[in-house]
Structures are given as structure tokens and as C-alpha cells.
Amino acid sequence: MRLHHLAVLVIGLAAAASTHAAINSGIDGKKPVQVDVKLSINEQLALVETAIGTEHYSEIGEADRMAVRDALGRIRAHVGGNPSADGLSPDIRTAVFNDQELVNNIMTRAHADSRMVCERVRLTGSNRREQACMTVAQKRDLKDNSQDILRTWNRWNMRRPGD
Hints:
By secondary structure, the chain is mainly alpha-helical. The chain has five helices and two strands; from the N terminus they run H-H-H-H-E-E-H. 18% of the residues are buried.
């Protein structure tokens, strides 16, 4: 009988450790943090709230940050004291899954935009290369702003005198 209890304890601890490791693996920056309501919801919601403040999600906008917090609040309100969404009514479960998808989409996009990219570039007037690092979102903004400036410059310089 003791051997049976010991085996159950060991299996329970192994399952808890693997769940804890799976939850914490998302915050290391290699993969985006995702909410899976089939696992322990309260731990996952805490993980998302912690991850939003890390450098891996530095490019998340204020509107997206508020949308994530609102969705997490709705999930928390719908789930209540339940450890998962399995015992909820179909309507509430659908609302929880919709909020889960919203959080996952925003977190995935913010994680991809916050990735740091470094490249060796030549500065104007120099043959020496220097390393320039910026996030994907910063690089995209720089490209878009440069194109807008060039379009505006071309528009003003294509005018004839007296127009």
C-alpha cells in the first residue's frame, strides 16, 4: 500500500514539475508566451502579466497592453475559482477561448516585434563597419519613415516653378 502511495506521489510531482517547466519556458524569450486554458489558468495569467513587463515584449503598444490586461481580467472573471475551463458552460467557455486567442495573437506579434536584430553597417563617409542593433519594429519604422520622407521630397521637387 505504501508503495502505491509513493508511486502516485512521484507521478504527481513529475506532472507538476513538467507543467511548471512548460509554463516558465515561455518567459525565456525564445518562444512567445501563450495562454492555454486547458492548463492551470491562474499560473498562466500570472505568467502573461509578468512577461508583458520584460524586454522580450518591449515593443507592445499601450493599446495592446490594455487589451491584454482587459482580456486577462475577463478570463479571470469567467473562470473564477476553477483551475481550468473544462467545467464552464459552453457560452462562457467560448468567451474564454476568444479572449485566449486575443491574448495569444497580441503576445506573439509583440514578441516578434521585440526581437533584437544586429547587423554590420558602413557609416556614411567611412569604410569602417560598425554594429547597429535595433528591434524588428524599430527597423520597420525606420524603413517606413525613410520611404515617406523620400516620397514627400520627390513630390516637392517634381513641381515646376510657379505651380
